[in-house]
Design a protein that fits this description.
Layout: H1 20-39, H2 45-51, H3 54-68, H4 72-95, H5 106-124, H6 129-149, H7 155-167, H8 173-191, E1 195-200, E2 203-208, H9 217-221, H10 232-256
Antiparallel strand pairs: 1-2
Helix pairs in contact: 1-2, 1-3, 1-10, 3-5, 3-7, 4-5, 4-10, 5-6, 5-7, 6-7, 7-8
């Protein structure tokens, strides 16, 4: 999954923080839990509840990668390469077949979002605010429509999540509020899904499972720009983890069904 390299050394925050490397590891572990629930352990619903946090972290780190990478072209090409390499493992895991055209893997979602950001940033660099606003509106609509029509993972809502972290990038209070309200709207109002009835302080409430994605903001907000451990092998382990772990799950499923 997306990981970047930067020469920037952020100043200390004076408290606990989470590095980019740690965020990637957390997101990969959460994604693995979700995929294990979807395949090997469907009765363990807590796995998919934890997995709801994975995609917002990946979307956030993809946006950070855009602004920190030395070469967007190389960054996008790496994503494209691993999106292609991951498609067959993804199809085997979710569709049980080599070709499953009704659902595409999540790297396509991230790539669509990053290409949209690239277009918006190109327009913004020309210095015309009104053009940037119009271009941004057009890109957001196009991204949501294409994400839905192409049936990428999380559909248009996934692409919108990437844009959300782009528009509300930063640590100012209004950025954090925008991330919170935006993630709530995307996950609860747009995606929705399974609802758990809960009782709290004598009141009957409903908890949307997809709404647990908002908890991803806790590790995201604890990130302050520190990259942490980085090396070429680690970078490609992060990219390769996605297709490889899906292939391993498929192999385990094949053994279990014999």
């Amino acid at each position: 999954m997306p990981i970047y390299k930067t020469d920037r050394t952020p100043t200390g925050t004076g408290g606990f923080d989470i590095s980019a490397a740690a965020l990637h590891i957390i997101a990969m572990a959460l994604m693995l839990m979700d995929h294990l629930w979807a395949t090997i352990f469907p009765a363990q619903e807590w796995l998919t509840c934890a997995g709801r946090l994975a995609f917002p972290i990946f979307a956030f780190m993809a946006v950070e990668g855009y602004f920190h990478t030395h070469s967007f072209q190389k960054y996008a090409l790496r994503l494209l390469l691993f999106a292609v390499l991951s498609e067959v493992p993804f199809d085997l895991m979710y569709g049980g077949t080599w070709f499953y055209p009704v659902h595409q893997n999540v790297i396509w979602t991230l790539l669509m979002g990053l290409l949209g950001i690239r277009l918006m940033e190109t327009v913004r660099a020309k210095g015309r605010t009104w053009r940037y606003i119009l271009a941004s509106a057009a890109v957001v609509v196009a991204g949501v429509v294409l994400g839905t029509l192409c049936m990428v993972d999380y559909y248009g809502a996934g692409v919108l999540t990437v844009f959300l972290f782009y528009f509300f990038r930063g640590k100012k209070w209004w950025c954090l509020l925008g991330q919170l309200l935006g993630l709530y709207w995307v996950n609860v109002e747009l995606l929705g899904g399974l609802v758990y009835p809960i009782r709290l302080l004598g009141m009957e409430l409903e908890l949307c499972q997809q709404g647990l994605a908002l908890l991803a903001l806790i590790p995201i907000w604890l990130y302050h720009g520190r990259q942490g451990y980085h090396s070429k092998p680690f970078q490609y382990v992060c990219y390769g983890f996605y297709p490889v772990h899906m292939l391993v799950i498929v192999l385990i499923l094949n053994v279990m069904t014999r």
